[in-house]
Amino acid sequence: MTALHTPEPAVLVLEDGTRHVGRAYGALGTTLGEVVFATGMTGYQETLTDPSYAGQIVLQTAPHIGNTGMNDEDPESRRIWVAGYIVRDPSRVVSNWRADESLDDALVSDGIIGISGIDTRSVTRHIRSAGSMRGGIFSGEAADLSPDQQLAIVQQAPQMSGLNLSAEVSVAATEVTPAAAAAGERIGNLAVLDLGVKQATIDNLAARGFDVHVLPQDVTIEQLRAIDPVAVFYSNGPGDPAASGDHVQLLRGVLDGGLPFFGICFGNQLLGRALGLGTYKLPFGHRGINQPVLDKTTGRVEITAHNHGFAVEAPLEGEFDSPNGYGRIEVSHVGLNDDVVEGLRALDIPAFSVQYHPEAAAGPHDANYLFDRFRDMVIATQENRKNA
């Protein structure tokens, strides 16, 4: 299988006027989004199909991308979600026996506009210094626009701050994955609010004995309760948590009703806001599969998979009271690179969350135990209610 490369020119334009001229990669045209970098050396298929990347032009810091192609087993969702794709050296051949098509062909099929042949290290260093910013990739006829025209188009694109993208990535109707046969005893129905959930997350939850009901992001509290859930899970997803007030109100209804709750990534930020905490935008975010995190409960350092541009504001040490009246809260996990809050735990209600991806597709599996911690919390809550 040979990758298709085009000599057609393409240009990456950042909102501060920075320009990088390279070659078109994938589909031709114009695409706009927030330019971010992902540091994983493997797992580009999982990155591309992660709904959390909706609205973002993703730069791979690993210089050589595409040699294992794309297959039908590893996608994390129903399509490629990135707004655009930036790589330095696309592989000219696909050399993995599991490949069903080349990465080039997959990008073209899903209409993903990319650029190759630019100094990705330079772009990464610029974003690390100046922060993530809007950008655009221009190829085909759009490559012939004047630099001023291209810059004006980029600067008119929406900012990620204040953007709600949940409706773009969520399922339109409820989808159910039964508890895995090998899981043993069935625990009950789990309500998963789909804010951009990944398939590996669903599989991990089903493997713990949950019948996983993936619900549309606009579900009401009455509709959620109608499935008689034993617990609620909020998934990862794109966008600004401050623009997701409805999801926060839904979560407050869940917490008020005493249902156990687990949230990851975007779900961690929404739990923070439901508890009464603030969120803020990180300068350039955490995106990769090699982020060190301290689990304060065990003292263990985990290498974890991240994809987030926003974080929760909370004191790192000691207990504090939830401003919204949910009792005592503590920060359970801390990022060791920059002291960002990476997890929250409620001490008086059955709720916790982490900022990263315990399903780790792709990535290390150091944090997979969190799914067991969630299952154990749900079972303990059920036992306490029986004995009350």
Automatic annotation (TrEMBL):
Residues 1-186 are annotated as: CPSase. SUPFAM superfamilies: Carbamoyl phosphate synthetase, small subunit N-terminal domain, Class I glutamine amidotransferase-like. One of its GO terms (molecular function) is carbamoyl-phosphate synthase (glutamine-hydrolyzing) activity. The active site is at residues 265, 357, 359. Pathway: Amino-acid biosynthesis; L-arginine biosynthesis; carbamoyl phosphate from bicarbonate: step 1/1; Pyrimidine metabolism; UMP biosynthesis via de novo pathway; (S)-dihydroorotate from bicarbonate: step 1/3. Its EC number is 6.3.5.5. The keyword Nucleotide-binding applies. SMART domains: CPSase_sm_chain (SM01097). Keywords: Amino-acid biosynthesis, Arginine biosynthesis, ATP-binding, Glutamine amidotransferase, Ligase, Nucleotide-binding, Pyrimidine biosynthesis. Residues 8-138 form the Carbamoyl-phosphate synthase small subunit N-terminal domain. GO terms for biological process: 'de novo' pyrimidine nucleobase biosynthetic process; 'de novo' UMP biosynthetic process; glutamine metabolic process; L-arginine biosynthetic process. The keyword Nucleotide-binding applies. Gene3D superfamilies: 3.40.50.880, Carbamoyl-phosphate synthase small subunit, N-terminal domain. It catalyses: hydrogencarbonate + L-glutamine + 2 ATP + H2O = carbamoyl phosphate + L-glutamate + 2 ADP + phosphate + 2 H(+); L-glutamine + H2O = L-glutamate + NH4(+). L-glutamine binds at residues 52, 237, 239, 266, 269, 307, 309-310. Composed of two chains; the small (or glutamine) chain promotes the hydrolysis of glutamine to ammonia, which is used by the large (or ammonia) chain to synthesize carbamoyl phosphate. Tetramer of heterodimers (alpha,beta)4. Small subunit of the glutamine-dependent carbamoyl phosphate synthetase (CPSase). CPSase catalyzes the formation of carbamoyl phosphate from the ammonia moiety of glutamine, carbonate, and phosphate donated by ATP, constituting the first step of 2 biosynthetic pathways, one leading to arginine and/or urea and the other to pyrimidine nucleotides. The small subunit (glutamine amidotransferase) binds and cleaves glutamine to supply the large subunit with the substrate ammonia. Belongs to the CarA family. This is Carbamoyl phosphate synthase small chain. It comes from Microbacterium pygmaeum.
